[in-house]
Design a protein that fits this description.
Blueprint (H helix, E strand, L loop, with lengths): L11 H16 L3 E3 L7 E16 L5 E14 L2 H5 L11 H8 L4 E6 L17 E3 L2 E5 L9 H12 L8 E4 L2 E6 L2 H17 L10 E4 L1 E4 L2 E4 L3 E3 L1 H8 L7 H12 L8 H9 L12 H15 L13 E4 L6 E2 L4 E2 L2 H4 L3 H15 L1 H4 L3 E6 L2 H4 L9 H9 L4 E6 L6 H4 L42 H9 L8 H11 L2 E4 L2 E4 L7
Parallel strand pairs: 2-5, 13-16, 16-17
Antiparallel strand pairs: 1-6, 2-3, 4-8, 4-9, 5-6, 7-8, 10-11, 11-12, 14-15, 18-19
Helix pairs in contact: 6-9, 7-8, 8-9, 16-17
């Protein structure tokens, strides 16, 4: 079904912006007038923003903002996109591409000139747009079509198919040539430029950089040393003032989360700020949130250099059960998983790590170090819970070897999670023996720093005051109401109605 839209209204200033853009495209032959198209989309003008800049407001406070550098003329192809069959051509994984690029001595960074406009169109009439100066159609692929990115990536991959991952990486209109020496990189560059000349692929020489030792690739700095964060972006994040709204918190977490692979315990540090994101939560940015905010900025400014893996060596995986999260991979346990047994939590950690890093571990030797001795013999067990059996089946595709390691030695995974604070009066009564296996400990009293109150505190407060805690989300409030129906309070005791009606 053809889609026709009426033109949008523009004031004289915006109309002049549209006129200049239309004349520029018409003069170079990218668009042409058309009168009988059944597909018509409107023109829209948006402010062209620069990168985030920290400026002072009227109250002399530093606030992050985006400065308007001009105007961008776009075509609103939303109705056309809804009836377009989607092209699902795959894009390269950014982390894997960065690992292939890192570790070389010389690089060349090439940029395509008006990339989309270099692709010829077959269904030109469907790109028709209307503006105050008439209706025009594109001869070349415009921006705004839902299949434009996939089409362009497919075209670039077909051009450099025999070179990709050998000495060039391609991501849209950015081409990264690399070599382990000056002569090798120069030789690879000559091959790439010859291919561009043969296929009439035009490059933007003003944005190209040749024979350099490092460069920025998708927000990361790659060099012979490895992968680093972009210092310009980190300095910008570090200069951001404390958030004053949920929107600013979400923006900060989005920027910081882009580099979460460089930050140890990212989920643990960012968790207080994430608690402010639910819609029904009151925004109170107290000292705990300020500490998390400053800690993330400090971790970003001191982020380490990541080195690509050596595929000739076996991978070692150190896992340990955690009562609330698995860090680095940012995996938290839900309510059901918190009730798992020790063995199930240990195996869940292994399953999650293997799935998360499957692209690294598959077809490679994997050595799993764990301080839970029962996990070592679980793979050979004939009878187990259905859930454990399903997990064990998932492990069969890996070349897996589980090695026992005492908790006192597995300091990387443990992270002191089993040390329990003892009051000063009891410190001298019993020496701490870290060499004990976990299976020998029959009683552990762990303090939850995220929830220092007893489990029944919210229930008692609700029964006494009939008010719900403001810090809880909507889901948590509904859950508390359901739980409270089975209890009643008779000061100073809390009683529960059992299914048999026994109190």
């Amino acid at each position: 079904m053809p889609k026709r839209d009426a033109q949008r209204r523009f004031n004289p200033n915006m109309k002049e912006v549209v006129r200049k853009e239309v004349m520029k495209l018409f003069n170079v032959g990218i668009i042409y007038p058309i009168f009988d198209s059944k597909w018509v989309s409107p023109v829209q003008v948006f402010p062209k923003k620069s990168g985030i800049t920290v400026v002072k407001n009227e109250a002399n406070e530093l606030v992050p903002t985006r400065m308007t550098m001009g105007w961008r003329v776009c075509i609103d192809y939303r109705k056309l996109n809804t009836v377009t069959s989607k092209d699902h051509f795959p894009f390269p994984f950014i982390d894997q591409m960065l690992e292939r690029l890192a570790g070389h001595s010389h690089y060349c960074f090439l940029d395509g000139y008006s990339g989309y406009n270099q692709i010829a169109l077959e269904d030109q009439e469907k790109t028709t747009f209307t503006c105050p100066f008439g209706t025009f159609a594109y001869r070349r692929m415009p921006f705004g079509l839902c299949n434009a990115p996939a089409t362009f990536q497919r075209c670039m991959m077909s051009i450099f198919s025999d070179m990709v991952e050998r000495f060039i990486e391609v991501f849209m209109d950015d081409f990264y040539v690399f070599g382990d020496s000056f002569d090798q990189c120069l030789h690879n560059l000559s091959k790439v430029l010859a291919r561009c000349e043969r296929t009439n692929l035009v490059l933007n020489w003003e944005k190209c950089h040749f024979m350099v030792n490092q460069g920025i690739v998708l927000g990361h700095v790659i060099s012979s040393k490895g992968i680093e964060v972009d210092k310009a972006k980190i300095d910008l994040i570090a200069s951001m003032p404390s958030p004053t709204s949920v929107k600013e918190v979400r923006s900060f977490l989005g920027h910081a989360g882009f580099y979460r692979r460089f930050i140890k315990d990212f989920s643990k540090i960012a968790r207080p700020m994430c608690n402010l994101l639910p819609k029904d939560m009151d925004f109170v940015f107290d000292q705990d949130y300020e500490n998390a905010f400053n800690a993330l900025k400090k971790m970003l400014t001191s982020a380490p250099i990541i080195i690509p893996p050596d595929w000739s060596l076996p991978f070692e995986l150190q896992v340990d059960k955690k009562p609330h999260a698995i860090y680095y991979a940012s995996r938290t346990l839900n309510d059901a998983q918190l009730n798992y047994s020790t063995t199930e939590k240990e195996l869940l950690a292994v399953i999650f790590a293997l799935e998360k890093f499957r692209s690294y571990l598959i077809t490679n030797k994997v050595i799993v170090y764990t301080d839970h001795a029962a996990l070592k013999y679980l793979l050979a067990k004939k009878d187990a819970k259905p859930r454990l059996i399903r997990w064990i089946l998932l492990l069969q595709e890996f070349d897996l070897e589980i090695k026992d390691k005492k908790g006192s030695e597995n300091v990387v995974a443990n992270h002191l999670s089993r040390l329990v604070h003892v009051s000063n009066e009891e410190e001298d009564l019993l020496p701490l023996r870290e060499s004990f296996l976990d299976e020998q400990l029959f009683s552990i009293c762990a303090l939850n720093s995220l929830n220092p109150f007893p489990w029944f505190a919210n229930i008692v407060n609700y029964l006494c005051t009939n008010e719900l805690p403001t810090r809880l989300s909507t889901f948590q409030r509904d859950k508390l109401r359901k739980q409270a129906r089975y209890y009643f309070w008779d000061d100073p005791y809390l009683f529960k109605h059992c299914p048999s009606q026994v109190i």
